[in-house]
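Session log. Operator J.P. requested a structure for one protein chain; no other inputs attached. Running the standard single-chain path with token output.
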Amino acid sequence: QQQLRQEGRQLYEEVDEHHQIREDERVRSESEVRELRKERDAARDRVDDALGELRRLRAKAEALRDIGAMPPGSALSLAGYAPPPSAADLGEQRRKNADLAVELERLQQSEAEKNARIAELEREQEMLVERIGVISSQAVLSDARDGGA
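Structure written below.
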């Protein structure tokens, strides 16, 4: 009987140790998820900024095209609006737009990867919680058997 009690205590200690390990893993996983969500949010903010800049530049380009379509001497050209941009300016603007589009694509890819990692960590966390539940149930059953004996 003494040996059974000793083994029971040892099993409880092992269960407690496993529980602590699982809890540490859960906390670490939650921390990773929070960090990845922060990174995802920052990437979303950069994407939103890039999209806003792209919209602004497109609107500006459209306005410049509209102004460029005005005949010389019209009310708009006489009101102090600048002449249409030069070919070099348009080329530079196109290059900037292309760079922004590449950055936008890179940020969207990064966001997708981080979302996938978050989903993976959440699935792993759910599995760990289930495993902890099983271990806890086993400990309770073991405790009940030891108490009933």
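Operator note: The first helix runs from residue 2 to 68.
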